[in-house]
Write a structure and sequence with these properties.
317 residues; alpha/beta; D-Maltodextrin-Binding Protein, domain 2; ten-stranded mixed sheet; 10 strands
Length: 317
């Protein structure tokens, strides 16, 4: 990922024109517990782009601290932003898995839920020069030699790693046999795939969409219940009974006052109601998964329980 993502590089005028809303925050800090260029950074930049165009927020300050599925940056956000009502962290399901896999004392339960915003299926890709031409070729290679078929993805224990573990299990192998190469951000993973340093890669469809459209990567399958892209089949429809998606959302620091939390939640609700946000979701192939309040808190509890069960089942926790 780059400091200014492709998302942020698009001119503000590219989005539908809107009446200026009342400014809710003169300035907002956006903390991304990952390197530039991946899904969390992309969501943070999307929030910035739409919020600034609508006049909801004056300026944004970004801080990227990558590593270990967000578990390197998370303690920094907790300690340096505690109680602040003008700070948000972008995170999601990858952090839930990484906390469990790495057994870290500071987890997603250490921060304050604000809003779940998006959901996205993973896509399996190979470089355009790869001898693997389709999903069957990928599965055959994985079944014959899982340790010799290297797969680039996000941090250990995250959605990409879990998806690969489930695929291996469906092929009669253990997730521990995988040759999984974890990266802290989308940029390094893309470079490894395009440079054929790995056999294949897995990540959110939006992260690889431009490379796929440009013909530099070949998309083999997605991990959703239904097709995210009409041209790319799902694992399920191809005979592999694996369905998994990656949700992303925003969190406030611990200790934030109720009135400050309510203001952050209201910002996300106003953002979500904007036509420009609906257009952003469509452009980025993100599914709308909006949820706030007690519903989001209950979802997080269920997600932690379910993720832990899956990680144990496939031998990753």
């Amino acid at each position: 990922m780059r400091r200014r993502s492709l998302l942020a590089a698009a001119p503000l005028a590219a989005l539908p024109l809107l009446a200026r809303a009342e400014q809710r925050f003169p300035s907002l800090t956006m903390f991304i517990p990952a390197g530039p260029g991946g899904g969390w950074d992309g969501l943070g930049r999307a929030i910035e782009q739409v919020s600034r165009q609508a006049g909801l927020v004056g300026t944004f300050q970004f801080e990227n601290v990558g590593g270990a599925g967000g578990t390197v940056g998370l303690p920094r956000f907790v300690s340096t932003r505690r109680g602040r009502g003008d700070a948000l962290m972008v995170s999601g399901s990858i952090m839930v898995g990484a906390v469990l896999t790495n057994k870290t004392p500071v987890g997603i339960q250490s921060v304050t839920p604000v809003a779940r915003l998006t959901e996205e299926a993973d896509v399996i890709v190979v470089p355009a020069t790869s001898p693997i031409k389709d999903l069957r070729g990928f599965l055959d290679a994985l079944k014959a030699n899982p340790g010799g078929t290297s797969i680039a993805g996000g941090s250990a224990g995250g959605t990409d790693h879990i998806a690969l573990g489930l695929i291996l299990k469906s092929l009669g192998h253990s997730a521990r046999q995988a040759s999984y190469v974890a990266f802290a951000g989308g940029g390094p993973a893309q470079a490894a795939i395009l440079g054929a340093q790995v056999s294949a890669g897995m990540s959110g469809l939006s992260e690889f969409a431009e490379q796929i459209k440009a013909g530099r990567m070949r998309a083999l399958a997605t991990t959703g219940e239904t097709r995210s892209d009409p041209a790319i089949p799902t694992l399920k429809e191809s005979g592999v009974d694996v369905v998994i998606t990656n949700w992303r959302g925003t969190f406030a620091p611990p200790g934030v006052r109720p009135e400050a939390l309510a203001k952050l939640v209201a910002l996300m609700q106003e953002l979500h109601a904007l036509p420009a946000w609906a257009e952003m979701l469509k452009t980025r192939d993100w599914q709308d998964a909006f949820m706030v309040g007690d519903d989001f808190a209950r979802f997080l509890d269920r997600d932690r329980t379910q993720t832990e069960a899956v990680l144990k089942e496939i031998g990753l926790a």
